[in-house]
Description:
- The chain is built from 23 helices and 2 strands.
- By secondary structure, it is an all-alpha fold.
- It folds into 2 domains: about 80-295, no CATH class; about 320-685, no CATH class.
- Strands 1-2 form a two-stranded antiparallel sheet.
- Helix 6 runs antiparallel to helix 7 (about 245-260), helix 7 runs antiparallel to helix 8 (about 300-320) and helix 17 (about 495-515) packs antiparallel against helix 18.
- The chain is globular and about 95 Å long.
- The chain starts with about 25 loop residues before the first helix and ends with a strand.
Amino acid sequence: MSSAMDIDVEDMFxxxxxxAFEDVTELFEQAASDMAPGDVLLSEGFxxxxxxxxxxxxxxxxxxxxxxxxxSRPTFDPLTPLLPEEVCWIIDRGFACEMEWxxxxxxSQTVYTLLYVHHLSNIDPDFLLQVSMNEDPHRPLGLLTIVxxxxxxxxxxxxxxxxxxxxxxxxxxxxxxxxxxxxVSLLEGVPVEYVVQKLEAACSWLRSSSIPIPxxxxxxxRLLLRKALLELFRLDLSQHRDxxxxxxxxxxxxxxKVQHTxxxxxxxxxxxxxxxDPSITRRLPNFIPIRVVALPSQEKxxxxxxxxxDGLNELDHLLDATSLSxxxxxxxxxxxxxxxxxxxxxxxxxxxxxxxxxxxxxHQYPQTWLIDRFWLETFGMSWDQISSLLHREPEDxxxxxxxxxxxTLKMVxxxxxxxxxxxxxxxxxxxxxQLDYSSLHRALKLMTSKTIFEDPGDQAIAKAIPLVPTFYxxxxxxxxxxxxxxxxxxxxxxxxxxxYYAAQVLELYLAFSAEVSLVVPDDNSAISEMExxxxxxxxxxxxxxxxxxxxxxxxxxxxxxxxVNFKRRYKWLFTKTxxxxxxxxVLPLPDLDVFFSDAEMNWDSTHLANTFKEAKxxxxxxxxxxxxxxxxxxxxxxxxxxxxxxxxxxxxxxxAAQSDVNxxxxxxxxxxxxxxxxxDPTVHPWFPCLKQDT
Length: 694
């Protein structure tokens, strides 16, 4: 190249085709001198569309075959003898590749970077010649052909079983996980039992070998961990539910052993380091940008496997649950608690598969069980009692008992499943569910309004029945609003509107709750649940009200701009898709005129401190609730722990408000609390914490 381009060819790395380039900039400038900016020259029959189809900016496969000096590697020989600790390290990094795939990266960036995946046939002992008498006793060939081969086969088969589970559309491809196999086998046609036998044979070979005991035990522990994972992944819980707990215990024990075995990274000249090639993607057919993914540390890998086993343990508890509230409680707290991470896609998919397999609930209950539990745990009456009360010959086929049963079944299944979607997907699903609950409310209201009840008690019950779907509708609306804080969607001026609307939704819920509680039977846990949720939401409503008053000062945008932003942010409130094309609002819209007028109120620090204190007065007694009075007592303990976290929020905000009161009484400036608010979902998903004083 010429000096005009200010690039020194001698300093450049080697390029395909050599370095003998000539600068043609002047030639192109001269040829295009008569063209105006934006003009395009096209040959006859070749359009701009054709040119863009031939070359895509950022096309990941354009340079996939390019190998430069910095990425050149020695030729990989899968039969290069290795020390036991080197094989152990490779197996560990195989776990790292697998767990990184479970975290959302592609197979080509993770599992396929372990080159032994592509050379299983080269290390198959059935196709190798007899071992030479000159074999290094410290590097026996069996470490490759028996031990490492079994470990790699086990990893691939685990990936195959996980791939099959996640491809059932319970989790979203490209959102939660990557399904692209790049035309590389995951041993789809190999029976699981065959791989299990290979792992057992590898353990037997190690026990009879002359390998030093520490390295031998480390290798056996890893093979047994792989075998336990393989057994868990292939377990059909609809037929072998009793085997889940024993395999979990085995896997946890083996993981504990592995975590306490330190395997150092091989030295730079070790051939084991060549087993991982992050650039293998350039040789595979793929459709995503080629990017090298840094594999996690081994400590992080074991932690990820521990979380995976924890998810299967959670599934075990769910399958033992006898109430719908257990599924709702575990699912909601998994989304709300900052201490709990989002489960791996494989676990979420498996939980959803077990919850409803198109025939039964939790592999044991008929579909009618779900409808019955929905009404019993919310209203205190079984569906048989309610349907017998409402049974009649309908004038409208849409109002038949059978139609309502089918609608309720589909609605509750979607509602429970939403708890195990990724957060954005879950939020969108809840928005759509608003319509389902509104439709059920409308159908029940029409049915009860056209039924004559001679008994006043039956008439009161019938009046309260349509409010049950409204309860869920309001809970869902609250979840949608508050999840915006957890996903950090709200700008500064949107936060007070969110808290304002959340407080209005809670106020409506409390009013309906007081009405329904009058007819709920007190001979089951439904009334205890209703009292718990009433006090919980009363405290939550006070917190939202106080934070609205705290954050509504000094809005940066005009009323008109905020009104437009509201319609865009809360577009799910303006849906018109309802039966008979009748426009019915999903929920009452907040009065923004009242919002702006209330925003001008003087929320002094004393008022704020008292409001947070009043919220605590509702929440603190909940921590002393007898969980045996609630549905799903085992899961109710976690619910109470979440209430304690809300009390901690109240304590911090009350103390800060009281500090402002003290500053004002001492002649200080006050108002510092508002400046110290910081929204951090890792501390609390919905409410702010306070910046530390500097």
